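Archive entry: two folds, one per protein. Generate the first.
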Amino acid sequence: MLALVALLLLMGCASIGSPDGGPYDETPPVFVGSTPARGALNVKDGKVTLSFDEYIKLEKASEKIVVSPPQVQQPVIKTSGKKITVSIEDSLKENTTYTIDFNDAIVDNNEGNPLGDFAFAFSTGEVIDTLAVSGVVLDAQNLEPVQGILVGLHEELDDSAFTTLPFVRVSRTDAEGRFTIRGIASGSYRAFALKDMNQNFLFDQKSETLGWLDSLVVPSTEVRMEPDTVWKDSLTVDTVRILPVTHYLPEDLVLLSFTEEPTFRYLVKSERTALNKFTLIFSTPADTLPWIEPLNFPSDSAYIVEANPRNDTITYWMRDTTYYYQDTLSMCLTYVATDTLGLLSGRTDTLNLVPKKTRAKQLAEEEKRRKEEQKELEKRLKRGDSTMVKKQTPVLPMKVNGGSSMDLNAVVTVTFNEPLASWRDSALHLVRKVDTLWVDEPFVFRRQKAKLMTYELLAEWRPEEEYKFTADSAAFRGIYGLESKKTDTNIRFKSLDKYSSFVLTVERPSTSPLLAQLIDKSDKVIRQAAVNAEGRAEFYFVKPATYYVRLLVDDNGNGVWDTGLWDERRHAEAVYYYGKAIEMRENWDYAEDWNPLSVPIEKQKPDDLKKARKEKKEKKSKNQQREEQKRKKQKRK
């Protein structure tokens, strides 16, 4: 009995809880052996078995593991306990070095620690090729590292090999866009990057992302004397030895990848989203508009054309209700299209366009709504509520983007939801407040370039002063007869001391036009300015914030970044990044001088902008997470 009481007392004093346990294992698996041996010669069997010191698994094996030379039939890769088996299904080639590049696909079974940059090689002949080249693949538009893209070598130096022959050696990029191609024989090669959609190791689809080097790649080695530190323990250095280390060159290849703009022109879609308009969408831009021959409506002034700047999306607003109330609009459409030989030629299609909501359905819905309103009125009358609901006269909707806190570089715009038939200048007024009086202010009202339903109000705007824009009733009339109601809009611009200014002086990397861009942390362009003949780009009225600077070489002068084209051996337009952030404050003037060629292109983009680095930074080890949790618990105590 006494023993039982003592046991209960002992249990009562004990603190119940789960022990922290030891640290999590963060050590990757260790390769311990294989059949055949690593680097084996005269191998006749395509089956390879690899052994490790702990239980392992493969992550995204089909995306990460690459066999060189490329295989027509995909190798069969299996894991079992501490082993990986790779069965090469294609017949082995004579006197050839085979490499199995696992990238970081091998991880331990419990914690998922990756065995990074692991590759296995053997030869079917008397010699194994050991040369290697490495580098990085970047997105040409934003210099972002490209993950998982194929990088291959051709020993056939003619350009046609890229579209007709598979690569002789391949690798795949990791999360930071880096790659290493191993098992290369001596010689000269052409290097390509390819997002191989159909896995045939050649560029044969326009949707495949690609990149290439113009110069030849000649693999070589170089021995460098480098320090090797021997530690007594984790804190004390024993000795530092200088040892020879073999480097495989080149190790700094940079391929800029892009996806070509479609060049095959065709009519993607024709749709009639409403009774009064229809839209034509084409696969690529054009210099001219298509020609329409109406079949059941008149051709003279039948519609108003709204085309985007590329002429690949075109909307036609029908003018006359007599004709657009028809369930079907029939027409012959003649346009420029790509024929079977890949050449542009005229093509004519007959279109019969039916709206999503026919006139009959529209009338039925209006009748249903009228009956519901009548029922509601009768219910109110029964309740003794004789208040009549005043019917609203339909008006032309309009939106003015004014306000009490306008940016000094903003444009005051007026937007409509249908084309205008006319407006009255005499019905538009702009006044400025001077002391307590409103004084007429000169202004210009006009349609914005390349925008059918957006108009701009131009005036000599002054910081911190109040304006009022008034549009009298019926100032604007739409093409369907609706008129606008009277509108008053207050406009006030911010003070000058709420902004920064920034002047960038660039040492020109090209004779082509240059565009300087202020971008935010998400790589979004906030402001853009042309670099003048003196190499200056000027930004005024900049909102205080953290910005980064990008430079675009605008070869064709169209004001936007353009991809390259393999058929013309034309690379994408060049992009450069200024290497540091610029923190702009209110009422400060900033200036920077920049030589875009002073830093290698692969080192230009700030780490804060790289998606891969951000994701890597956000991933913490389990030990780090547990330490942070401990610190938080201690603070709460």
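Generate the second and append.
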Amino acid sequence: MLANLRVRNYALLDEVDIEFTPGLNVLTGETGSGKSILIGALGLILGGRATSEAIRGGARTAIIEGLFEGMCDAQVQALLSEIGVDMEDGTLIIRREVSRDGRNRCSINGCLVTVSVLKSLGDLLVDLHGQHDHQSLLNPRTHRDFLDGFEDAGAPQQQVAEAYRHFTERSEALRQLDDELAATREREELYRFQLHELEQAELSPGEDEELERERAVLENAEQLIRVASDAFEALSEGEGAAVDGLVRVIRALEEAERIDPALGEALGGVRNARYQLDDSIDFLRRYRDRVEYDPARLEEVLDRLDLVGRLKRKYGATIEDVVAYQDRIAGELDLMDTVDERRDRLRAEVEAARQALTERAKALSDRRKQVARKLESRVVAELAELGMGKTGFQVRIDWQASEDGPLRIDGRTYRVDARGMDLIEFLISPNAGEALKPLVSIASGGEISRVMLALKVILAESDRMPTLVFDELDIGIGGRIAESVGHRLKLVSRDHQVLCITHLHQVACWGRTHFTVHKQSDRGRSVTLVDHLDEDGRVQEIARMLAGETVDAMALSHAREMLRRTAAV
């Protein structure tokens, strides 16, 4: 509930600090005293539109703060969690500062937020009635909530929500598969060409390195043969061959070893050198005989290298990358061979989910139509008690046809969401013989407020809105009807905090807490003040509202009696 409202430098409000209580809080005062200014200030911390013209003359900023207590609603907690605002003991402090330069500073529990966030939170905390710029009843989107709140629709709504979630999940899966298939089909011909090209190439890892080495040999074959031949001859043939020299050295060392065995080590080293030299001579002979200048093979190698280079430029930096790409497109082509089967299966799942959603949405709609007739009777009866006895009220339930709607009923398609397929709007005819029209077309704020009051009385137990504000509720009524309005406000205040601005003593006497709003002149400037009345003050104010300027003993006695009688109800 709204526990405290502090306003500074807003319109005629210099500095006002109001402590509200649970139950029915009434605000009274002469016309033009500034009662609606308070409601305007409250609207600012609920996300209402702010203008610099509302800042009190001589001040640079207007500041409005609201303290809300007992905030345990799950939607409120979810919103605060989403925006990262901590709430201790269910307490919220909402502050808004409006500057003359047009800037706004909004905060919730000290955390800066945007005006849109403030409005989202405000819509969960307070309902203002009687001001066309902030009335949930004027928005047809809320009418479904009112209807479902009349007789709890939690279970069938949950069934529709689950069916809708399942349908959207299956539909999204089918859409993604169709998108994937469409994109893949566009590439299928290309992939099949590429796969054929790669399979024909039969690349193997490291092949390009081997080809480069072979190319180098083939391009330099004559030089390599010449070098190998020259080395072979220098080592084993011709005059002064190295092997002949080693043979002579070995013989000489063998003879010398017989004289001095110490030369055995040197002899062994030379013998090893001879063996290694023989191996090298054998390798050079075979190399010389193997290597040959082969232009045809060189052309083959160059062609193969060119093919490998082209494939690497197209499909990857290395042969390993090219082979990996080949494996990937082969896998995608394999998936294409099974995608039609998967798509048929998903289509069947979507159709089954569509049928389940249709059945549940229709069942919820049929239930709402039955509940609507009951609500219409109750609202008409309540409005009669509130002085609108000739008022007609109807709950119109339509289905919104749409070419792309997911629900198919009797050859037509309709839209649906997680809360069903129904478009619900309240229609009203304030006077006998007039056509029923949407509530938004009604000009009288008092009529709208009384319709809301009737709904709040009916829905008091299930409505979760903590605080209701009624302004201009008593326009055009009096006598017994006004007393009935006050009584019903008190009934609503058993489950909600209610703030009511009224000009009628028949309404004001039902309040639990009473404030008067009045103007006074302060150093040549008008200032609006708000006083919290004690019991004697209430008697005086009710008597003033009864008798006018002259309050006599009879008016005071009548006021005491009214307060005594309403307190006992």
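Annotation attached to the second fold: The mean pLDDT is 86. Residues 535-569 form one domain.
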